Amino acid sequence: MSIEWEEARRLAYEAGRAAAGPAEPVALPDADGRTLAEPLRALTDLPAFPTSSIDGWAVRGPQPWRPVGRVLAGGVAAPLTEDGTCVEIATGAMVPTGAEALVRIEASTRDDDGRVRGEPRQGYVPEWRLPGEEASKDEELLPAGTAVDPAVIGVAATCGYESLNVYRRPRAGLLVFGDELLTAGTPGAGRVRDSLGPQVPGWLRRYGAIVEPGSVTGPVQDTLEAHLAAVRGALAGAELVCTTGGTMHGPVDHLHPTLAELGAEYIVNTVAVRPGYPMLLARVPGSDGRPRFLAGLPGNPQSAVIALITLVAPLLAGLQGRPAPALPTVEAAAKVRGRGDDTHLALARLDHDGRSATPVGHVGSAMLRGLSNAHGFIVVRPGTEAAPGDLVPFLPLPLVIGERP
Ligand SMILES: Nc1nc2c(c(=O)[nH]1)N[C@H]1C(S)=C(S)[C@@H](COP(=O)(O)OP(=O)(O)OC[C@H]3O[C@@H](n4cnc5c(N)ncnc54)[C@H](O)[C@@H]3O)O[C@H]1N2
Ligand code: MOO
């Protein structure tokens, strides 16, 4: 009996979450793309000291003010103890205790005897930054599970971190099954080009996996022996192995017998979704005691990508300690039919403001033309259909800004 689509996603995420590896410290510049294993907390107040936002004068008491010193960024100012005195101050310098106002250099004049006159600027933007204005010591700035990006690295550096405790990026491999597949040239005479070997590693990387060029193999010969040897070899070097094709029970579909031979345990074995129904996810015991995962992507190319987004994306999120992927809601711009008791994933393009989605053409499960023109899938739940204007969940492709403008 196949599993409901949402339930399959949940099971895949939970399986990954339970197998997330230990955290490790990684130097800030190398942490891009990792995931915080613990909350990022401010190590001090931020700013850590009262900081001048301007070049000018820190003044005390009524003007004119007699300059008694200078403080540059990086220095520690002596306190201003007497009314009618000031220190010259640079942007970023620590404001001396006792200072009552800051006067911009361009708003000041000097008397013949060197005394300073001028008016502190009144207004919305203060001329100095107060300790704790951005964060107080120990305040949580970002929760565990946050994907580390350059801005996260920047704020961690500001706080005083040299490294971050992050989860490992999972290693993934890919095995392509199918004797009918060509790896070069044009299709014909019963042969088709392998369109999954070249594209799946890119999707996997976008979901955070490491895929070395040497971890992509295929076509693997359509025999049980060749399948077993290839899967064993791939599982030795990766915690996730994706396979394409052979998920059914045809004469040369060897995936299920291979899994049986390896003592694998199914987490998901077929999903009530169209396209993509025969997808599977299995847990295989690793020789080191840590589980390995095998995701069986159906051979029909669009179905394979759907299986990847349905099962592999939540699995990888879990393995990296990230939250389960959530679905945004959009408006269906046209009618989308239901698929009976199955969830229907209908390829669609988002309009320019991302609020409504229009189904695209060329969406057969053996086709990729629709996929290459879509931003994701309208999700039509079992027993329903979407009418124009209906609010529907949207399953996005992991596209990078600038792709599919
Ligand atoms: N009797 C039934 N037959 C099929 C059913 C069914 O319910 N009963 N379901 C169909 C569905 S749905 C799918 S999806 C496929 C899945 O089959 P497999 O995962 O076993 O995949 P294959 O048979 O190996 O290939 C299917 C199809 O895809 C082409 N293919 C495979 N790999 C690639 C690749 N890397 N690049 C491009 N094209 C690929 C292959 O040539 C076949 O045309 O089963 C249906 N059959
Ligand atoms: O479910 Mo198949 O995956 O429709 O092509």
TrEMBL record:
<protein>
    <recommendedName>
        <fullName>Molybdopterin molybdenumtransferase</fullName>
        <ecNumber>2.10.1.1</ecNumber>
    </recommendedName>
</protein>
<dbReference type="InterPro" id="IPR036688">
    <property type="entry name" value="MoeA_C_domain_IV_sf"/>
</dbReference>
<keyword id="KW-0500">Molybdenum</keyword>
<dbReference type="InterPro" id="IPR005110">
    <property type="entry name" value="MoeA_linker/N"/>
</dbReference>
<feature type="domain" description="MoaB/Mog">
    <location>
        <begin position="173"/>
        <end position="318"/>
    </location>
</feature>
<dbReference type="Pfam" id="PF00994">
    <property type="entry name" value="MoCF_biosynth"/>
</dbReference>
<comment type="function">
    <text>Catalyzes the insertion of molybdate into adenylated molybdopterin with the concomitant release of AMP.</text>
</comment>
<keyword id="KW-0501">Molybdenum cofactor biosynthesis</keyword>
<dbReference type="InterPro" id="IPR036425">
    <property type="entry name" value="MoaB/Mog-like_dom_sf"/>
</dbReference>
<dbReference type="InterPro" id="IPR038987">
    <property type="entry name" value="MoeA-like"/>
</dbReference>
<comment type="similarity">
    <text>Belongs to the MoeA family.</text>
</comment>
<dbReference type="Pfam" id="PF03454">
    <property type="entry name" value="MoeA_C"/>
</dbReference>
<keyword id="KW-0479">Metal-binding</keyword>
<dbReference type="InterPro" id="IPR001453">
    <property type="entry name" value="MoaB/Mog_dom"/>
</dbReference>
<dbReference type="InterPro" id="IPR005111">
    <property type="entry name" value="MoeA_C_domain_IV"/>
</dbReference>
<keyword id="KW-0460">Magnesium</keyword>
<dbReference type="InterPro" id="IPR036135">
    <property type="entry name" value="MoeA_linker/N_sf"/>
</dbReference>
<comment type="pathway">
    <text>Cofactor biosynthesis; molybdopterin biosynthesis.</text>
</comment>
<keyword id="KW-0808">Transferase</keyword>
<dbReference type="Pfam" id="PF03453">
    <property type="entry name" value="MoeA_N"/>
</dbReference>
